[in-house]
Design brief:
- The chain has 7 helices and 4 strands.
- By secondary structure, it is mainly alpha-helical.
- It has 2 domains: about 5-95, no CATH class; about 100-170, no CATH class.
- Strand 3 and strand 4 (about 145) form a beta hairpin.
Length: about 180
């Protein structure tokens, strides 16, 4: 991806973030914030959670790659401001928003049906029979799987006991995005 293309995607994402903030809080001045650096997918939860916490909105990175935060009733605006500032300072690398090409989808399929499946089964988590590569590719869209007939994590306990598996058996292979 060229630097120009990367910047164009970053500008589009920032505009969408700003527009969403303004639509939700039209009477609030848009906070000033400057991008410090792009984040890899693996960094997003911990960096954004730390930024939110520093801004006075306690948050924690969850083991499955999300961010956990409690928003008290009446505190939504303060949370939205912190979220806007943190995501402006530390946006996801634009290369992560480019749809996967055929080669990347094949790589993802091979990873999920071999490495990920073996890892889950080694942790005594059953994995349903995967679809064929052709079916997997046919159901994959620009936004990810269109119809999720097969989920490698389908039998992972959603509670605290199962959460560690996301670190032990990562959902996506390294270098999927280059």
């Amino acid at each position: 991806m060229t630097a120009t293309a990367r910047q164009a995607l970053a500008d589009q994402a920032q505009t969408a973030l700003r527009d969403g903030f303004v639509a939700s809080y039209p009477d609030v001045a848009v906070p000033m914030a400057t991008r410090e650096r792009f984040l890899s997918l693996d960094e997003i939860p911990s960096v954004i959670a730390a930024c939110l916490t520093d801004a006075g909105v306690p948050a924690a990175a969850s083991p499955n790659g999300g961010i956990e935060s409690y928003v008290a009733q009446g505190d939504e605006e303060r949370h939205a401001i912190a979220d806007y500032v943190c995501n402006t300072r530390f946006p996801s690398d634009p290369k992560n928003s480019v749809p996967l090409n055929e080669s990347q989808i094949t790589y993802l399929y091979q990873y999920q049906t071999t490495v990920l499946t073996s890892c889950l089964e080694s942790a005594h988590i059953p994995v349903d029979t995967p679809p064929t590569l052709e079916s997997f590719m046919a159901n994959y869209t620009d936004q990810g799987p269109a119809t999720v007939a097969w989920k490698p994590y389908a039998h992972v306990d959603p509670g605290p006991l199962g959460q560690g598996i996301y670190k032990q058996c990562p959902q996506t292979p390294e270098h999927l995005y280059g």
